[in-house]
Amino acid sequence: MTAAEVASPSSGRGGAFASILSIGTLLLIGILAFSIRLFSVIKYESVIHEFDPYFNYRVTQYLSKAGIYEFWNWFDDRTWYPLGRVIGGTVYPGLTLTAGTMWWVANALNIPLSVETACVFTAPVFSAFAAWSTYALTKEVKGIGAGLTAAALIAMVPSYISRSVAGSYDNEGVAIFALVFTFYLYLKTLNTGSLFYATLNALAYFYMVCSWGGYTFIINLIPMHVLLCIVTGRYSSRLYIAYSPLVILGTLLAALVPVVGFNAVMTSEHFASFLVFVILQVVAIVYYTKRILTPKAFRVAVAVVLTVGTIVALTLIAVLIALVATSPTKGWSGRSLSLLDPTYASKYIPIIASVSEHQPPTWPSYFMDINILAFLVPAGVIACFLPLSDSSTFVVLYLVTAVYFSGVMVRLMLVFAPAACIMSGIALSEAFGTLTLSVKYQIELPDPPTGPVAPVDQTAAGATSETSASATAADLAKDKSVSEKGKETLRERPKRSRKKEKESAEKSVVKKAPKKKASKVLPFEASAVAIVLLLLLVSFYVIHCVWAAAEAYSAPSIVLTSHTADGMHVFDDFREAYAWLSHNTEENDKVASWWDYGYQTTAMANRTVIVDNNTWNNTHIATVGMAMSSPERQAWEIYQTLDVKYVFVIFGGLVGYPSDDINKFLWMVRIGGGVFPHIKEADYLRDGQYRIDAQATPTMLNSLMYKLSYYRFAEATMDGKGYDRVRRTEIGKKSFKLTHFEEVFTTHHWMVRIYKLKPPKNRFRGKNKRRTKPMITDRRNEDPPYLWLTTLYRSVEVKCYLAKVPFGDVDGRQLESFWRHKYRN
Amino acid sequence: MAGGGTTSDVRSLVSSLRSAYAATPVKLKIIDVYVLYALTTALVQVVYMGFVGSFPFNAFLSGVLSCVGTAVLAVCLRMQVNKENKEFRDIAPERAFADFVLCNVVLHLVIMNFLG
């Protein structure tokens, strides 16, 4: 798609050589963007990560198996039992369809990919596309040099990497590409005024709507920009062509996506675009009449129209307000409201507030996620203002809104990252442009610098750039308005392949015989130092990004590792538990857990769950929360009404895994209490403190969550004291029995503990012999010293076994006998 | 606002509008009529909706948006082929028309799909 753009970059003076060079650079950037995201595959394995990706993976599997029509009509009865969920109508299908198409194309070409492989590599592939469309976008704003720099920056910006490593198969992976590409096409339409690009723009917007709920950002940002243009007197026919068809076509296309449907015209997230559409029509008529009328007649016309127009406008606004007021939540959905009022979610919707990625970010997370770009962004903003154009106002507006949104939710840092990259790309490229230009200028003319202007601001500029850090060097370079034509190669080179290419880049520029007189030239030493400092800065960025990609953001979170003195430990408990569920329970058994694990359970264990990460029904989640916070007997009754057979909890106390259910428990209480008022948060807190030691409240110690987590825990710890390594305390209640639940499986590191609900006693008394045996616990009682050896041995065996045999093919009994055989002695 | 001689002002305004518009090339006038027609159709549909109700909402929506979309696209075309508009000198009228047709095709494919 960027090929079309690449084909015509010879607008500068570089000609064929420059265009070939930039195509080559773009290719390399694409490869970089793809390969920097493969750390997760190399360090772990080619596996789907985290929670939501498992759902997307499952949907893709269904799509590839059943076909597109079945997919649209898919009613999933394995989740939200007993409600079920209409997947086809409630999912953003963009990602799934993309990966499904990729898989289909690969298979049609006789490349035997599995669906999983296609899913794992979707995000890296699309980050290469995103880098290319960033190039195209920035090129529209500030020319090829800035475009290439921005593309290189976004190829490895940690914030984007965190959502698009191989295996992170989530909407954002393709949505960022769609976002940037839509913006690019908007600017392209704005700059050319061609209906062709307007059509493409609407289609790109359609893809974005398909991919991510964040499309509302586009449909609000573009109207804002249009409004800004109108207010600042920059209206043009090109603006009309860029915006009006987009609203009409975009609305219709958005309404085609089932999950959006009539929301595209009914909710107030979209109203801004219609309002601006109407304003734009009015403005267009005004400009038209202004052109054909004499100034005097126009003044009369304005007077007439104003009197009539205010009345019409007032009635329109009244109708609009009435419409908004009648729709629920005043037409704004919860997530959008929490954007405008950051405290909204935590006040009213605990289920949104409970998700960590919906929290506001901390300052370090900015440094972690965009690193040096945070310093370069202001310089880029200044550069955008120097010759202010329609497209640079758009980029600035994008940046400002994205900064605000990223300040509200960590997750939206992702939207901010492309803006930061574009700005920094512009800043860096301008800086390199100025500096290398003055270096080259002085090499060419060894005489004292020409031009009467130079001496004054030379000294000023020189002094600052030497004393202050390189970031400020970029900043002040911005103040020198630089003509950027023909400097593409030069600006790009030092960025991509850093130090060693510098000399050759300089040479190539010298050869190209620049006739242009730089208006302002910095002294040679100052610019040389500044170039070196900038290169250093950029290489720090590269180092940081590679580190972030390799260490911070590659963990799949279903396989955990820890490094200790005696080497690396792998915690594969989740898959162990899911495999156990899938092999040892009946196919139609219902499994209850906290909603975080719903997607994984349906995807990996193929069992029906009560709630999952989709969180569309608050009451249902609250029911599970209530069950988890109730005493055993009540919880058992609640689960019995939900037809639940198995309950599992995530427990990190043995190995120190902090994001376990005990740490999430207060959220369960809050969400449960939000619907069922007899659950009170205060009952679980001792003097406002959440604790599980001897000081804990009786309600806490009797809650199902506590019991399921700490059942037999004290026996398992070395000294029998029950020391919880996450909470760093001894647990409050050590020896207790379960009356309505029985432990059926606990994973190697105790991270997942699965319990079975005992059947109702009065009806089945005496028939309880066919219980599933708790496998580990028995052995544990017999010979504790042997315990660690066996569990270790077993987990290795199981992993090998599972590796050899695909999940679906193992018969439950077969695996059980396999285990029995292993542990008979 | 428009104090005393309102009627005479309006009359002179209308006459100057008419004379200014008379200078428009015929091609653009044809487009104007087309736009007017499309807008009238949209208006008729909205009025009809007022009487009958918007029950098959997608039908109503696609009907109205089809008309409005057609009008908007025609306005875009008019801007591009208008000789007086200096912004579009590098877009030939033929190219503008081809783009217009493409956009219309996409629009009406979507609408056919949306009609249900």
From TrEMBL, chain A:
Task: Outline the extent of the Oligosaccharyl transferase STT3 N-terminal domain.
Answer: 26-423
> Superkingdom, according to UniProt?
Eukaryota
Instruction: State any single GO MF term.
Output: dolichyl-diphosphooligosaccharide-protein glycotransferase activity
Q: Where is the composition biased (Basic and acidic residues)?
A: 476-492, 500-509
Q: In which pathway does it act?
A: Protein modification; protein glycosylation
Q: Map out region (Disordered) in residue numbers.
A: 454-511
Q: Which GO terms describe its cellular component?
A: endoplasmic reticulum membrane
Q: How does it sit in the membrane?
A: Multi-pass membrane protein
**Which PANTHER family does this entry report, sorted A to Z?**
DOLICHYL-DIPHOSPHOOLIGOSACCHARIDE--PROTEIN GLYCOSYLTRANSFERASE SUBUNIT, DOLICHYL-DIPHOSPHOOLIGOSACCHARIDE--PROTEIN GLYCOSYLTRANSFERASE SUBUNIT STT3A
How is this protein named in the record? dolichyl-diphosphooligosaccharide--protein glycotransferase
Q: Species name for this entry?
A: Riccia sorocarpa
TrEMBL record, chain B:
Regarding the membrane, this protein is recorded as:
Multi-pass membrane protein
Q: Name one GO cellular component term.
A: endoplasmic reticulum membrane
Q: Which UniProt keywords apply?
A: Apoptosis, Endoplasmic reticulum, Membrane, Transmembrane, Transmembrane helix
Where would you find the membrane-spanning parts of this chain? 33-51, 57-77, 97-115
Main location (coarse class): endoplasmic reticulum
Query: In which pathway does this enzyme or protein participate?
Result: Protein modification; protein glycosylation
Would the keyword Secreted turn up in this protein's UniProt record? no
Task: Please state where this protein is localized.
Answer: Endoplasmic reticulum membrane
Keyword Transmembrane set for record:
yes
Q: Which stretches are annotated as coiled coil?
A: none
Q: Which family does the UniProt entry place this protein in?
A: Belongs to the DAD/OST2 family.
- Give a short account of what the protein does: Subunit of the oligosaccharyl transferase (OST) complex that catalyzes the initial transfer of a defined glycan (Glc(3)Man(9)GlcNAc(2) in eukaryotes) from the lipid carrier dolichol-pyrophosphate to an asparagine residue within an Asn-X-Ser/Thr consensus motif in nascent polypeptide chains, the first step in protein N-glycosylation. N-glycosylation occurs cotranslationally and the complex associates with the Sec61 complex at the channel-forming translocon complex that mediates protein translocation across the endoplasmic reticulum (ER). All subunits are required for a maximal enzyme activity.
Self-association state and partner proteins as the record states: Component of the oligosaccharyltransferase (OST) complex.
What this protein is called in its record is Dolichyl-diphosphooligosaccharide--protein glycosyltransferase subunit DAD1
Question: What taxonomic classification does the UniProt entry list for its organism?
Answer: Eukaryota, Viridiplantae, Streptophyta, Embryophyta, Marchantiophyta
